[in-house]
Design a protein that fits this description.
The structure is a single chain. By secondary structure, the protein is mainly β. It has a single domain, classed as Peptide methionine sulfoxide reductase (Metal Binding Protein, Guanine Nucleotide Exchange Factor, Chain A, Beta Complex). Helices cover about 0% and strands about 50% of the residues. The protein contains no helices and 9 strands. The strands form 2 sheets. A 6-stranded antiparallel beta sheet has the order 3-4-8-7-6-5, with no helix packed on it. It has a 3-stranded antiparallel beta sheet with strand order 2-1-9, with no helix packed on it. The relative contact order is 0.25. The model has no long low-confidence stretch (mean pLDDT about 90). The structure holds zinc ion. GO terms for molecular function: metal ion binding. InterPro entries: Yippee (IPR034751), Yippee/Mis18/Cereblon (IPR004910), Yippee_fam (IPR039058). This is Protein yippee-like.
Length: about 120
Amino acid sequence: MGLRYTSYIDHPKSKHSKFVTYGCCHCRTHLSSSAQVMSKDYRGTTGDAYLMNKVVNIVEGDRETRCMITGCYVVCDIVCHMCKNLVGWKYLESERKDQRYKEGKYILELQTICKVH
Ligand SMILES: [Zn+2]
């Protein structure tokens, strides 16, 4: 496999007092932050989930088609690149035009992530 390095998410100074960094709940590797949350109104396989604009330090799994309430999508699971904890999935393609804004975006399952500093 290619290069594996861990990116760290900087906590912006001042202004963003509610800024939260989300990490893997097992190894606390940084995954994303509150600035990347597009929607908190999602359901994952284990419960509540967030739609994220950008997630780092993950490895993408095999492509598969998965049908959900809003239609069928080509997705891949995403796992933490350090401990291989399953943290959610990435939308690759949507069959419905009105759902295409999710393409290239990520779902993070809240049960698999935690707030880190
Ligand atoms: Zn991890």
